[in-house]
Amino acid sequence: MDVFEAAKLVVGIDTKSFEEAKARQLTLTKPPYALGALEDVAAQICGIASLVPARTPSRGALAIFAGDHGVLEEGISPWPMEVTAQMVGNFLSGGAAANVLAKRTSTKVLVVDVGVALDLVPTEGLIIQKVAKGTSNLAKGAAMTREQAAKAIQVGFDVACDLVLDGHDILIAGDMGIGNTTPSAAIVAFMVGAPVASVTGYGTGISSELFEKKVAIIESAVSRTASSIDRSDVLGVLSSIGGFEHGATVGFIIGAAFSKVPLVLDGVISNSSALLARELSPLSLQYCFAGHASREVGAKVANSALGMEPLLNLDLALGEGSGALLALGLIQGATDLLADMATFDQAGVTEK
């Protein structure tokens, strides 16, 4: 199905089930609201499932969208571009942090090549849907064409829908791309209207000198974009300053919502992408959880703009979906609590 048509068909979560879940919390053997944010998480899961109590999501799938970035030509990262392809190999062999964390919740790990510069060898666990061999340099002009932006979004949507058809009941947005915090900061700055320096982080450990250069490049790209593109023009924004993994994540979010399954956002890449997804399908965010408060300042600004409170705050800045994977266990626990705790009547406990 066409992602842009599907975006128009996304409906909000079931508010009746959401409220029933909140009411059920008051009958459980605990003081009112004693489980804090876990109660909100469980209610959101029930609203997504239209069922109280909801079945606990148990078949997670992490999609790591991988792509390279032409802006690396500007020397804004100490890591070379080939590390993206090397890390894809690490994911496929099970050696990355995301793989280790995924084992804890029996989560499937899938890598999607949406724009890696090098040619990858077809391997189990790898989906090759390369839009192009990396983006163009956003410091010199548009990062991609509008057609490429649309294709990247479609890739993410198709991956989400296929995973749900395969029986997965909660999706996790991951990413891999050396230099991808630069387009992420550009997207956040442009979509939120925030000063570039306030949403730009140090990425994979750059120096203060490189940070200033990174900010200047993003400021120029955002200014160029603002001169001719409106925030509501998602393809325009993405083609001007985005990355292929951003586009795919936009589609992934819409695909999860269209399929009525929850999705856990990770760090600055997925949160900046959520700002774009909101323009295409505002109701899609009702299916999303902010997994953690990334160390990258742009992620925090995006969380605030999206009205999402991160579930964890562990000073993480790895990406890959690592923080979202940690949050998955929390989401599962919150759903279990609502379903399996005894009520006051069942336990014979006197209510306050």
Automatic annotation (TrEMBL):
Which example biological process does GO assign this protein?
A: cobalamin biosynthetic process
Cross-referenced Gene3D superfamilies: 1.10.1610.10, 3.40.50.10210
Keywords recorded for this protein, A-Z: Cobalamin biosynthesis, Glycosyltransferase, Transferase
MF terms (GO), sorted A to Z: nicotinate-nucleotide-dimethylbenzimidazole phosphoribosyltransferase activity
Give the active-site positions: E320
Give the EC number: 2.4.2.21
Q: What does this protein do?
A: Catalyzes the synthesis of alpha-ribazole-5'-phosphate from nicotinate mononucleotide (NAMN) and 5,6-dimethylbenzimidazole (DMB).
Please give the name of this protein.
Nicotinate-nucleotide--dimethylbenzimidazole phosphoribosyltransferase
Tell me which species this is from: Acidithrix ferrooxidans
